[in-house]
Amino acid sequence: MTMQCAEVQRFIDAYIDGEFADEDRAELDRHFEACESCRAEAVRQQKWKSLVRARLARPSAPYGLHARIERALDAETAPAPLWRRISWRVGPAVLVSAALAALILQVKEPPSSPLFQASILDHTRNLPVEVASPNPDEVANWFQGKVDFPVRPPRFGANAQLLGGRLERFGTHHAAYLVYNVDGRKVSVVVFDPNDLPFEAPQRVVVQNRQVYMVVERGYRVAAFRDQGVGYAVTTDFDEPRVVQMVRYSFR
Amino acid sequence: MFGLGAKKEERREFEDLALPHLDALYGTALRLTHNEKDAEDLVQDTLLRAFRFFHRFERGTNVKAWLFKILTNTFANKYRKRQRERVILDEVQTQHEIDDVRVPDPEAALAARLVSDHVKEALESVPEEFRLAVILADLEDFSYREISEIVDCPIGTVMSRIYRGRRLLQKKLLAYARETGVVPEEKEKEPRLRVVPGLKDE
User: Fold this and answer.
1) Is the model's pLDDT at A90 over the cut of 70?
2) B108 touches chain A (CB under 8 A)
3) Are A48 and B138 within 8 A, CB to CB?
4) What would the mean pLDDT of A44-60 be, rounded to a whole number?
5) Top-confidence residue, B71 or A229
6) What is the average pLDDT score of chain A?
7) Residue A61 is nearest to which of B26, B159, B170, comparing CB atoms?
């Protein structure tokens, strides 16, 4: 009897895990009917198993792991992203800073918001400004009362000079249009209420943990992002690393 | 080799099959590595390897077991090396510890409201190969046969690892229950409890 109990003890876990075929199970059941000690141990082990299971809720994969894996699979399947190929011509310093600053995400999303087309149209039209000033505060003051959100002209670095702005209409909503001279080239910024104008686009870049949507059309690049609840769409003819650099500067 | 469309199709099929198991893979990775960053790296490495070898996956077979096999192999190759010496030491000690251990009823532990953190910590103290067997059986509901395929060892070994892993875990949990005063010292001295083998030398 003792030998038999020792053997039964060895198989108790497999028994409670339902690993035995009917025949073997029946044999163990017969033993349990006769042997109180082994039966008690089986009950005890079943309780322990339930206790551990109940206490060890499975942790969820952290937010972001899914996207990270998608990116890894992208890298596995797709050719090198465009910005990386461009950077070879731009130089190693830019390559490194762009690589650090931006991670390209391809998100499966519908085509870009009309905001991007409107921004490019604004950028190309060369209409006169209503307030002309290099002073961001002066331009900001001019917009007060004209739009129902604060207009804080972003700063893009020492080579960027604010020229002025005008009131713009997007459908039924007002927005602020600002124009800059950056390295002798025109840069347009539309400041808008993101609740009025959604700005999703298929391509997304993460700059300092913030999402920046990018659209390239007719040779212009529009980068749209949100800062302190206000939306910004920056239109330039610069390449992506340069745009990312400007956006990153404006986040300071 | 593949047209672009075929590659896309393969990627979609892979994601449909593999990504539903992301939480399970991460949970087990976390319990193997004890570290969130390593766990994320391990899951990413696992899924990348799985994708590379996806053409070898036999469609219609158990994809979860296949992914877990890659997870445990990846862990063994990449993350475990630095821990190996410690594990061997643990095993020697373990062999000694679990000789004829019969752990009492968990009702005391239940009453103690052993918190999840205790159980998590206790599980982490169990040597890795025992721990893995317990995780796969108790938390991921794999059968002994599946576990034997995942960790690549005979079913008999799986059985004994689960047996030993659980007893070690129970012993640790009981120690916690005692520390937190759920199994009071004086009560422990009562003959009724002292007859339980394996407790007398605590």
Assistant:
1) no
2) no
3) no
4) 86
5) B71
6) 81
7) B26
| Closest residue of chain B to A54, computed from CA coordinates | B116
Distances (CA, A) of A145 to A160, A168, A211, B168: 27, 14, 29, 71
| B contact residues 79-98, partner A, Cβ 8 Å cutoff | none
Which string of DSSP letters, residue by residue, matches B135-180? IIIIIS---HHHHHHHHTS-HHHHHHHHHHHHHHHHHHHHHHHHHT
Residue B28 near residue B138 (C-beta atoms within 8 A): no
Q: What is d(CA A16, CA A11) in angstroms, rounded to the nearest whole number?
A: 9
Nearest CB to B116 within list A44, A55, A68: A55
Q: In chain A, which residues have their Cβ closer than 8 Å to the Cβ of B162?
A: 13-14, 17
ipTM: 0.74
Coil, strand or helix at B95: helix
Q: Is A173 helix (H, G, I), strand (E, B) or coil?
A: strand
Interchain CB distance below 8 Å, A61 and B48: no
**CB atoms B11 and A53 under 8 Å:** no
What order do you get walking across the sheet with A104-106 strand by strand?
Answer: A104-106, A203-207, A210-217, A220-227, A230-236, A185-192, A173-182, A160-170, A131-132
pLDDT of residue A195: 81
Whether residue B117 has pLDDT greater than 60: yes
B110 with A51: Cβ contact below 8 A: yes
- Locate tokens 């096999």: which residue? B69
Percent of chain A at pLDDT above 90? 28
- Nearest-angstrom CA–CA distance, A87 and A229: 32
- The pLDDT, as a whole number, for residue A148 is 86
The whole-model pTM stands at 0.53
Hey, are the CB atoms on B26 and A59 less than 8 Å from each other? yes
Phi, psi of A177 (to 5 degrees): -105, 130
Other C-beta atoms closer than 10 Å to the C-beta of B177 total: 21
